[in-house]
Amino acid sequence: MKTVVVTGANTGLGFEVSRALAAAGATVVMACRSVERGGRAAERIAASSPDADLDVRECDLADLGSVRSFAEGVLADHDELHVLCNNAGVMAIPRRETADGFETQFGVNHLGHFALTGHLLARLRATAGESRVVTQSSALHERGVVDFDDLQSERAYDAWDAYGQSKLANLLFAYELDRRLDAAGADVASLGCHPGYADTDLQRRGPEMRGSTLRLLAMRLGNALLAQQAVDGALPMLYAATAPGVEGADYVGPGGFMQMRGAPEVQRSSERSYDRETARRLWAVSEELTGVTYDLPSRDAGTGT
After folding, report:
1. What pLDDT is stored for residue 194 in this prediction?
2. Catalytic residue, candidates 163, 197, 239, 294
């Protein structure tokens, strides 16, 4: 039986990923900011899969202490870890800061998952057979630019630019992690994915936080007319996590209209996402900000490439 960690498992894409994996017989560790909401989600999964093996645990990606405590609990209670699904995220919200003082979108979407992966990596490496780390990005990573002079958007903040930066950071991390795992000879693959346009609570939070009824109505209309259901948006992550033949540094997304919907396929992400120098610099900054270091060599160390 495989053991899988899914962040943001109580709602949206994370819920659908958790439900599908549990139905397939995996032990699913449901990492949720709210254990109460996670418990209700687990009850829904168990209603359709009575034999589901679910482990609901608190993990607030906006608090590095919570991330560390969650990882310690997983390591204490689970001897193997086959897949880590870095799924949770926030999108286009008003500027807020995490418990550690990071801009929330960058802190939750990238730094929280960077820290979580670092805490769990030794267990992924020690698990027999190939393990996988799958990090959820977005097609909007294409508008992203990593602004090292203002990573926390303290001087200027645009909600969508900050979201794009965080989603680009997800892919820079996923690809750099795979290069370093390869250099270490580790039997762990790191992949990226995106859901296309899926109808989830993710889109609603920003307008709700702003108290904008007009934006909320526009978002609901767009979701109703254009979005696929969350169960379909979960397919790229499920494909990246389980399909034979996918490889490290692959990027999986919907293959249909404008990559917004359709069956999952391996695609190519933006040119900026493959920039190795930016990835190495982001890695170093992320280690410094989170205090989480990886015992992995840089693939390009000493090669000048």
Report:
1. 98
2. 163
Give the pLDDT band (50/70/90) at residue 209: low
Q: How many domains does one find in the chain?
A: 1
- The Cα 34–Cα 199 span in angstroms is 21
Whether 134 is covered by a domain: the verdict is yes
Sign of CA dihedral 149, 154, 155, 157: positive
Q: What is the pTM of this model?
A: 0.92
Contact (Cβ atoms closer than 8 angstroms) between residue 5 and residue 84: yes
Q: Is 163 a catalytic residue?
A: yes
Q: What confidence tens digit (pLDDT) does each residue in 242-273 have?
A: 999 999 999 999 998 878 889 999 999 999 99
The reply to whether 192 falls in a domain is yes
In a domain, 263, yes or no: yes
Contacts of 172 (CB under 8 A, 6+ apart): 146, 273, 275, 278, 279, 282
